[in-house]
Design goal:
Blueprint (H helix, E strand, L loop, with lengths): L1 H13 L2 H55 L3 H71 L8 H33 L1
Helix pairs in contact: 2-3, 3-4
């Protein structure tokens, strides 16, 4: 996964700032859709579990009726109860398999969602610093093209680097604050 993330970062770095924002927007949308899909899967799993409980109860009732009918020697009722018990037993078996498959699918989707979300958040955090550096580099190229020169002294370069670092830290802090606000609003 690290190589995949590095490849995406390299592609984003090669793209312009606007392109990287588009890619991040698409990733954000994919994470949102994955989250919605997981919620739908949870609802489906809960519905299957409710159906399974109902079929287990119906099976237990049919088996109980069969035992009661055997106790009073009512063979017709015993036969009907056995047919119903067989029908409910089959449904229970199918619903158990369905429940297991849905649960496994949900666990897989949750792991994939966790990875997607972590990758998106990491890339989103790294974007402001990269975009700011790219923007400053672009500004220097424009200045040089217009006949200007870059500062020659290490002091000016150091000042610029500090400003970029500060801008990147402020951007990350703003993003973390927004994420915390969103999280607190949902809680």
């Amino acid at each position: 996964m690290g190589r995949f993330r590095d490849a995406i970062n390299a592609a984003l770095d090669a793209a312009g700032a606007a392109d990287s924002r588009d890619v991040l927007a698409q990733m954000r949308q994919a994470v949102i859709e994955a989250r919605a899909s997981i919620e739908a899967m949870r609802q489906d799993l809960a519905e299957t579990e409710a159906k399974l409980r109902a079929q287990r109860k119906a099976l237990a009732d049919a088996e109980r009726r069969g035992r009661l009918a055997q106790g009073i020697q009512d063979e017709d009722t015993v036969e009907v109860a056995e047919r119903f018990a067989d029908k409910h037993r089959e449904r229970v078996e199918v619903l158990e398999q369905k429940f297991e498959a849905q649960r496994d699918e949900l666990e897989l989707a949750e792991r994939e969602y966790g990875g997607m979300k972590a990758q998106f958040l990491e890339m989103e955090r790294s974007r402001p610093a990269t975009e700011a550096a790219s923007s400053v580099e672009s500004a220097w190229r424009d200045l040089e093209a217009a006949g200007g020169t870059r500062p020659e002294t290490d002091v000016k370069d150091e000042l610029l680097k500090r400003q970029l670092d500060r801008s990147a830290r402020e951007a990350r802090a703003d993003e973390q604050l927004e994420a915390l606000k969103r999280k607190m609003g949902k809680g």
